[in-house]
């Protein structure tokens, strides 16, 4: 019996040694690979952020250039290390924002995005590289941030912020930054911030312009105070439609980082009742004072009607992504598929293919023998364009002979503008131009690239 106990004790000691050696190896591995991060696909409770009571020598060295600023100092730096920030969207704004917050020594960064990295992201989403294509943006951004500053705690969330998870998630952070690109998410983030009492540093960038405001901050207005109703979905343009010069969200994301750092350090932001507008064309910033918090606001007012998160896609009439805004303005018999058009093209019967994209897009790629008249020119009834259209219709009539309505097929990038153009052309048919039979090509050139010709460029 005693011998058995002795033997077990010896075995136990041996195992303990093995465990200690394994722990040591693991610690070494974790140190040499600080980028191994767990990707979260749901909201998990976080432990409270602990911070050191004083700066280490390494901290002093790393942050020395900003510690010298009286506006920050040791106290401000320690405040940064105690602050957690949730970044909604790791795209054009979220990347530079995360980069500067991590570099400055923010305590914890939640990096949230449902999407994966694509080649067309890389001109502005500067934390992602070519090798990250197809990877979750949240993870790619978190890995890049960790390489920059391994002392920052990074939590990548590969999920869509929704009414089901937003409050639970936002409650765990001190400051929220909206770096998303769609209206439903803007209302969702706003309402969740109001309900959780968190300041919201919000920015946007499109084409050559950017905007920034801090909402729900020190008694200032929330997003709904200023925009009680969403804009009609068809009036909203996003980067994939309108384009954006990469450096513009870069500047606005850095600006968001600045305001977050000012709030986190204790200095405070002055953008709580201000809209800052950046015009890249003129290299100018302008600020306008916004109206104050509205007592009648639906979420932060005196008698709020929104006391919990609602259905934001229904409220805005559009999806909480910028990917699938597909208008449906026409009846079935006013539309044909790209496959139908391929047959028409192969049959080579007389018809007109009208491309209604702006010239800048036609220069990128177009189908052979299409006539380009931008939608805006049709809507404005530009006489030189109407003349051109009439000329082509007359040619067709000659080719077709007899009393006929020449077929006109309308195409654009994704099949939204082409539907609007069909409506305009239908109105013009028989009055401003000769009678025509107009049809929309569903899904536009991107559907053509996907289903008919994989060598056709996608943009
Ligand atoms: N509700 C949401 N939950 C999580 N991520 C979101 C949500 N709404 C938007 N995003 C993310 O916000 C980011 C916005 O960035 P940006 O507009 O630069 O990128 P993008 O959508 O990839 O661009 P593009 O329009 O060129 O495809 C995107 O990565 C998008 O996935
Ligand atoms: Zn409000």
TrEMBL record:
Cofactor note: Binds 1 zinc ion per subunit.
Family recorded in the similarity comment: In the N-terminal section; belongs to the HesA/MoeB/ThiF family. UBA4 subfamily.
Main subcellular location: cytoplasm
Pathway(s) where this gene product acts: Cofactor biosynthesis; molybdopterin biosynthesis; tRNA modification; 5-methoxycarbonylmethyl-2-thiouridine-tRNA biosynthesis
S-S bonds: 316-324
Entry annotated with the keyword Nucleotidyltransferase: yes
InterPro entries for the chain: MOCS3/Uba4, Rhodanese-like_dom, Rhodanese-like_dom_sf, ThiF/MoeB/HesA, ThiF_NAD_FAD-bd, Ubiquitin-activating_enz
Active-site residues (renumbered): 239, 412
Any one GO molecular function term: molybdopterin-synthase adenylyltransferase activity
Function: Plays a central role in 2-thiolation of mcm(5)S(2)U at tRNA wobble positions of cytosolic tRNA(Lys), tRNA(Glu) and tRNA(Gln). Also essential during biosynthesis of the molybdenum cofactor. Acts by mediating the C-terminal thiocarboxylation of sulfur carriers URM1 and MOCS2A. Its N-terminus first activates URM1 and MOCS2A as acyl-adenylates (-COAMP), then the persulfide sulfur on the catalytic cysteine is transferred to URM1 and MOCS2A to form thiocarboxylation (-COSH) of their C-terminus.
GO cellular component: cytosol
Cofactor: Zn(2+)
EC numbers on record: 2.7.7.80, 2.8.1.11
GO biological process, one term: tRNA wobble position uridine thiolation
Keywords: ATP-binding, Cytoplasm, Disulfide bond, Metal-binding, Molybdenum cofactor biosynthesis, Multifunctional enzyme, Nucleotide-binding, Nucleotidyltransferase, Transferase, tRNA processing, Zinc
Binding-site residues, Zn(2+): 222, 225, 297, 300
Protein name: Adenylyltransferase and sulfurtransferase MOCS3
Domain spans labelled Rhodanese: 347-457
Binding-site positions, ATP: 92, 113, 120-124, 137, 181-182
Subcellular location: Cytoplasm, Cytosol
Source lineage: Eukaryota, Metazoa, Chordata, Craniata, Vertebrata
Catalytic activity, reaction form: [molybdopterin-synthase sulfur-carrier protein]-C-terminal Gly-Gly + ATP + H(+) = [molybdopterin-synthase sulfur-carrier protein]-C-terminal Gly-Gly-AMP + diphosphate; [molybdopterin-synthase sulfur-carrier protein]-C-terminal Gly-Gly-AMP + S-sulfanyl-L-cysteinyl-[cysteine desulfurase] + AH2 = [molybdopterin-synthase sulfur-carrier protein]-C-terminal-Gly-aminoethanethioate + L-cysteinyl-[cysteine desulfurase] + A + AMP + 2 H(+)
Enzyme class at the top of the EC tree: transferase
């Amino acid at each position: 019996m005693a011998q058995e106990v002795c033997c077990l004790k010896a075995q136990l000691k041996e195992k303990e040694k093995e465990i200690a050696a394994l722990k040591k190896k693991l610690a070494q591995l974790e140190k040499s690979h600080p980028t191994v991060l767990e990707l979260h696909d749901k909201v998990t409770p976080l432990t409270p952020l602990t911070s050191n009571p004083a700066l280490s020598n390494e901290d002093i060295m790393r942050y020395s250039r900003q510690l010298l600023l009286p506006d920050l100092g040791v106290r401000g730096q320690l405040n940064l290390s105690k602050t957690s920030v949730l970044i909604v969207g790791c795209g054009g704004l979220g990347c530079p924002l995360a980069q500067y917050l991590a570099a400055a020594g923010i305590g914890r960064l939640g990096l949230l995005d449902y999407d994966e990295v694509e080649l067309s992201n890389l001109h502005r989403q500067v934390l992602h590289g070519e090798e990250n294509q197809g990877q979750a943006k949240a993870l790619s951004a978190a890995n890049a941030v960790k390489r920059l500053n391994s002392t920052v705690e990074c939590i990548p969330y590969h999920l869509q912020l929704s009414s089901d998870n937003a409050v639970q998630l936002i409650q765990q952070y001190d400051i929220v930054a909206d770096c998303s690109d769609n209206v439903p998410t803007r209302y969702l983030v706003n309402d969740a911030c109001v309900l959780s009492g968190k300041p919201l540093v919000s920015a946007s960038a499109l084409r050559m312009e950017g905007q920034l405001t801090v909402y729900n901050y020190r008694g200032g207005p929330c997003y709904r105070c200023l925009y009680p109703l969403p804009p009609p979905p068809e009036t909203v343009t996003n980067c994939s439609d309108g384009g954006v010069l990469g450096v513009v969200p870069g500047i606005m994301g850095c600006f968001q980082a600045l305001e977050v750092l000012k709030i986190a350090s204790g200095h405070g932001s002055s953008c709580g009742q201000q809209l800052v507008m950046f015009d890249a064309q003129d290299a100018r910033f302008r600020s306008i004072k916004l109206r104050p918090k509205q007592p009648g606001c639906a979420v932060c007012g005196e008698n709020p009607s929104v006391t919990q998160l609602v259905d934001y896609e229904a409220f805005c009439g559009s999806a909480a992504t910028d990917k699938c805004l597909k208008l449906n303005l026409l009846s079935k018999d006013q539309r044909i598929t790209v496959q139908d058009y391929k047959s028409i093209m192969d049959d080579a019967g007389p018809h007109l293919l009208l491309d209604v994209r702006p010239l800048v897009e036609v220069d990128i790629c177009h189908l052979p023998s299409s006539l380009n008249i931008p939608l805006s020119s049709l809507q404005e009834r530009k006489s030189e364009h109407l003349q051109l259209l009439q000329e082509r219709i007359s040619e067709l009539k000659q080719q077709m002979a007899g009393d006929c309505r020449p077929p006109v097929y309308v195409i654009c990038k994704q099949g939204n503008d082409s539907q609007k153009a069909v409506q305009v052309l239908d109105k013009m048919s028989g009055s401003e131009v000769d009678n025509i039979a107009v049809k929309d090509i569903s899904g536009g050139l991107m559907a053509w690239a996907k289903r008919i010709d994989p060598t056709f460029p996608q943009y």
